[in-house]
Amino acid sequence: MVGILSAAAVAHQSPTVLLVAVGALFLLFVAHRLLFSPLAKIPGPWFTSITSLWIMYHEFLGDRTVILDALHSKYGDIVRVSPTEVSFNNAEALKDIYGIKSNYSKSHFYDMFVYYDERNTFTSLDKPNHTAKKRLVADRYAKSYVMQDAVAEKIQEHAANFMFQITKEPNALDVYTWLHYYALDCITNHLFGSRGTSTLTKPDHRELVYDLSGVKHRTRLYMIFYFGSLMSLRERIRSTWRWILGNSAQFHVRGSRLNDYGKDSVVGFRTGELEKDTISTCAKLFKAVPNNDNQVAAECMDHLVAGVDTTGDAMCITMWRMSTPEYSHVQDRLYEELKSIEHFFDPVTGTAPIGELEKLPYLDAVIHEGLRWRAPVPMTLFRVVPAGGANIAGKTIPAGYTVGCQAYSLHRKEDVFPNPDLFDPTRWLAKDPHQLSAMKTHFWPFSSGARMCLGHK
Ligand code: HEM
After folding, report:
1. 32 CA to middle of ligand 1, Å?
2. How many Å apart are CA 311 and CA 314, to the nearest integer?
3. Rounded mean pLDDT of 326-353?
4. How far, in Å, from the CA of 316 to the mean position of ligand 1?
5. Exposure letters 333-351 (e unless 16+ CB within 10 A, then b)
6. Which helix (H) or strand (E) element contains residue 88?
7. Is the pLDDT of residue 222 over 90?
8. Helix, strand, or coil (residue 239)
9. Which of 44, 94, 353, 425 is 20 to 30 A distant from 160 in Cα terms?
10. At how many degrees (to 10) do helices 281-288 and 127-137 cross?
11. Is the dihedral of CA 348, 349, 352, 354 positive or negative?
12. Measured between alpha carbons, how far is 347 from 194 in angstroms, rounded to an integer?
C-alpha cells in the first residue's frame, strides 16, 4: 500500500521536477549568455545577449535599419545586435571589415539572391570565388567602357525617352515608376544589348518593375533566410503542383516573370545576337562561359536586380526632395548651373552629353547629398569574421560571428555630417579639406573595397 502511494507521489511530482530542471537549465543558459558569451561585454540591450528573436522581429517589421541606428545613438559606435552579431559605425571598422585587403566572406543572407542555382559576382560568398566571377564582368563597368559612344548614346536615348514622357504629361507624372522604367531600360540594354527592354516607350515588360520593386518581397526574403528548408520544401510542393497543372515556370522570391525574363533574354541573345553584339555584358559572358546559360543568366539577373531599384530609388528621392517647396532653392541653383551649359543641350530631346554634365560641381553635390541623405541600400551589409577571429575597431570578435556597418548610420554621424536630416548639397562644396575627407570616408552608398558596387561610376 505504502509502495503504491510513494510511486503515485513521484508520478505526481515528476512534472514539477521536470519543470524545475528545465527552468534551472534555462536560467543557466541565460546567465551564461549574459556573463560569458564572447559578445557579453559589447554594449547593447541586455536581451540581445540572449536572443536573436528581437532583431528578427524588427527585420520582419521592416524597421531594423532605424532601430539599429537608434542603438548606435544610445550605445555608441559598436553595438551588439544579437548573440552572434555586432554592428559597427565608424571608419576604423569600415577599413577592417570592408577594406581592399579584407578577407571577410559575405554571410548566407546573400543566398536569397541566388538565381538559377548559380552563384555570381554579387552572391559569391568567399574571396576566391568572388574574384573569379568579378573578373568576367568588371571591365563592362570601367568608365572608359561606359563612356564609349555606343554605350553613352544609348543611355542618353533612354534619358530622352524619359524627358519625352515629362513633356507629354507636364502637370504630374508618377516619377517613381517612370524612373524605374528608365533604370530598367538602361541596365537591360547594358546587359543584353538590343534585346534589352524598352519600357519607356512600350508597355512590354513593365510588370518587371513591380516584381523588382514591390514591398511585398521583404517578408518572403526573411522567411527564406530564416526558414530556408521549410520554404524550399513548400516551393518544391508548389512547383510540383504547377508542373501537374502544366505550368512549369520556376518560381523565385521575386516572381516567375522576372525569372523567366532573365532566362529568355539569355537564350534569345545566344540564338539571335551572339554573332552581332560584341559589347554587351551578355556577349562577354558567353565568350567566357560558352556552355552555361544558367551561369550567364544568373550573372545578368543579379546586375539587373542590383541596378534597377537602387538607381530608380536614388533618382526618385533626390527629385522628390528638390520638388518640395522648402528645397526650391536647391532646384533653382541646379537650374542655374544647368543653364550655364545650355548650348550643350539637345533642343529636341532635352538631354546633354554625360561628359559635360559630370563637370558640374553643384550637380555632383546634389547627387552626393541624395545618396547620403537616403542611401538606396541603407542596411547592414553582412559579413562573417574569418577563421582565427578578428580585431575590429579595437574589439575582439570570434570567427564565424556576423559583423557589419550600415550606410544609414554612417551617413548620420553628427560630427561628420552636421545636421544630418537636412538635405544640404553645399556641404559637399566645403572648403575645409579635413571635413571633406571625413565626409568622403563615411560616404558609403556603394560599399567599399573589393565588393564595392560595380555600377558606382
Ligand atoms: C545608385 C545606384 C546604386 C547603388 C546605391 C548601389 C549600391 C550597391 C551596394 C551597397 C553594393 C554592395 C552590396 C553588398 O555588399 O551587399 C552593390 C553591389 C553591386 N552593385 Fe550596385 N548600386 C547601384 C547601382 C548599380 C548598377 C546600376 C549596377 C549594374 C547595372 C550595379 C551592380 C552591382 C553589382 C554587380 C554589385 C556586386 C559587386 C560585388 O560583389 O563585387 N549597381 N551596389
Report:
1. 40
2. 5
3. 94
4. 17
5. bbeebbeeeeeebeeeeeb
6. strand 85-88
7. no
8. helix
9. 425
10. 120
11. negative
12. 26
What residue ranges line ligand 1, CB within 6 angstroms?
A: 121-122, 134, 187, 190, 303, 306-307, 310-311, 314, 376-377, 381, 445-447, 451, 453-455
Ligand 1 pocket check: which of 108, 453, 454, 456 to mutate, most ligand atoms within 8 Å of Cβ?
453
Q: How far apart are CA 60 and CA 58, in angstroms?
A: 5
Taken in order of first residue, the domains within the chain and their CATH numbers are: 46-107+374-457 (no CATH), 111-323 (1.10.630.10)
Q: What is the pTM of this model?
A: 0.89
Q: What is the mean pLDDT of residues 193-198?
A: 91
Helix or strand or coil: residue 226? helix
Selected residue with higher pLDDT from 34 and 386: 386
Q: Whose CA is nearest to atom 43 of ligand 1?
A: 453
List the grid coordinates of 414: 553628427
Task: Report the residue among 111, 280, 305, 310 best suited for mutation to probe ligand 1: largest number of ligand atoms under 8 A from its CB.
Answer: 310
CB-CB contact of 176 with 144 (8 Å)? no
DSSP-assigned letter for residue 115: B
Mean pLDDT of the region 443-457 = 94
**Residue 58: is its pLDDT beyond 70?**
yes
Asked if the model's pLDDT at residue 96 lies above 80, the reply is yes
Cell of 24: 534551472
Per-residue model confidence as pLDDT tens digits over 135-154: 999 999 998 898 888 888 89
pLDDT digits (tens, 9 = 90+) for 248-297: 554 455 567 888 899 999 999 888 887 788 889 999 999 888 889 999 99
Taking the CA of residue 382 as reference, the ligand 1 atom at the shortest distance is 16
Cell numbers for 183, please give them.
533604370
